[in-house]
Amino acid sequence: MTKPFPNTPAFAGYNGPSRVEADIYDLVVEGELPPGLNGAWYRMTPDPQFPPRLGDDVFISGDGMISMFRFEDGHVDYKSRYVRTERFLAERKARRALFGAYRNRFTDDASVQGLDRTVANTSPIWHAGRLLASKEDSLPYEIDPETLETRGRYDWDGRLKTCTVSAHPKVDPVTGELLFYGYEASGDASRDMSFCVADAQGRLVSEAWFEAPYPGMVHDFAITEDFVVFPIFPTITDLERMKAGGPHWMSDISQDAWIGVIPRKTGVAGLRWFKRPGGQFFHVINAFNEGERITLDLCVSEMNSFPFIPDVSGAPYDPAKASAFPSRWTLDLARNDERIDERLVSRVPGDVPRVDDRRIGRPYRQAWMGMVDPARAMRMSGPVGGGFNLVGRVDMATGEVDAWYGADDDAFQEPQFAPEGPGELDGYVLSVIERHARNLSDVGVFRAGRMADGPIALIQLPLRLRGAVHGCWVPA
Ligand code: V55
Ligand code: FE
User: Fold this and answer.
1) pLDDT (tens digit, 9 = 90+) per residue, 417-452?
2) Quick one: which of 453, 368, 443, 445 has its CA closest to 43?
3) In this structure, is the dihedral angle defined by the CA atoms of residues 122, 107, 182 and 115, taken in order, positive or negative?
4) Ligand 1 atom 10: the closest Cα is on which residue?
5) How crowded is the C-beta side of 59, counted as CA atoms within 13 Å?
6) 273 neighbors 256 (Cβ within 8 angstroms)
7) Using CA atoms, how far apart are residues 426 and 422, in angstroms rounded to an integer?
């Protein structure tokens, strides 16, 4: 039998493992679902199959659970399945956890050495009719988009050389190409980075490697019409520390953050670096270029937002310094320097940003994200500790915020924009609303341009949906 999970932040309260693979037909909806909202919303959630091998673990080590809300003519069905990774299957067979600490293979049971450690729990990727479940530490797994069954590890017809693929590839909305990359591309703690392109049909057309200034976490990147942009912040790994059983990551904000820019035409031969002191980051909001001038929008914090990534100085986790703020950075390739011009867009902390997918890499204005009002009640969930107590929109041109608070017992997961019409505000935003008092979840359906009005429809789940990391919308 499976023993109780530990009573620690990654496993207690709303973070309690669910382990439920569900099929729910025609969910209960309060209000009216927009009849034009037709498509599938895929989401990935860490959801540990077994209690941790080492007594405790971090939230983002949980086995990948992929879920789907399928919207059709005013109805919505729900389905969720574990991703059958090599790791999941080995542990299922043993009926217990065999893998140890997050991204530290030196803490694993000897029986699983050489097996793929990934839990594929971070992002669903939709490209060329294929659905992939990815985490940045390995290759993704291909998933059947209807049944959510796992088809196996996906390596682009065996042609990919990089050992890792990030969970934040980008589909160019004009060319249909998938632009993606891996860091620690030749193995743990390597500085190697891969930059790969698959054409609109999903065929790998290029893979080129370059070196990062240090082996840092490169959780997300940006594309523009003419460039790709790699933000490398000082969350740094070290092989000797890992061998000693220590954490994969430590944050060292005394080091510079480096922004690598590669022209899409010339590839890695044209790599150029920009620099600024310290700071931390997880997510790009969007980016675009006007000639040689790149606008890079991203959520930037002072300290690492994850409490489990310690600061090398010993500085304790400080929620204020760990809060990320939507920021607009300008990189000018016409200038012959490494300078970045920085502007704070909004003073409301926010992360897990989403934009209209049709505007990725192109001029845009609107972003939706989870936000925090530090003066109001905060519910504990997800990897960061404090959940988002607002879900809202930021106008990146003016900094205007249009956000909804809900109630003191609510928290929000990553919003998803679903377009209906050509305009940037024409459409809906979906967000899981965690009802902490009832230990259940709803999905709020908002008008994209009227977030502060609250949801126009509430999809009710008879389940608690553990904090998802990322999602994607696939129109019908
Ligand atoms: C993140 C999430 C991860 C991970 C590394 O959101 C970074 C950031 C869910 O897993 O492995
Ligand atoms: Fe992410």
Assistant:
1) 999 999 999 999 999 999 999 999 999 999 999 999
2) 443
3) negative
4) 60
5) 27
6) no
7) 7
Does the beta carbon of 417 sit less than 6 angstroms from any atom of ligand 1?
no
d(CA 350, CA 346): 9
And the tokens for 194?
A: 């891969």
What is the average pLDDT value for the chain, to the nearest integer?
A: 97
Tokens 């679902």, located at residue: 33
Amino acid occupying residue 428: Y
Q: Say how far apart CA 65 and CA 150 lie, in whole Å.
A: 11
Rounded Cα gap, residues 63 and 88, in angstroms: 7
Distance 349 CA to ligand 1 centre (A): 19
Residues 68-125: tens digit of each pLDDT: 999 999 999 999 999 999 999 999 999 999 999 999 999 999 999 999 999 999 999 9
Strand-strand pairing, 222-223 and 204-211: unpaired
Q: Which DSSP helix (H) or strand (E) runs through 86?
A: helix 86-94
Tens of pLDDT, residue by residue over 195-245, are 999 999 999 999 999 999 999 999 999 999 999 999 999 999 999 999 999
Q: Indicate if ligand 1 lies below 6 Å from the C-beta of 470.
A: no
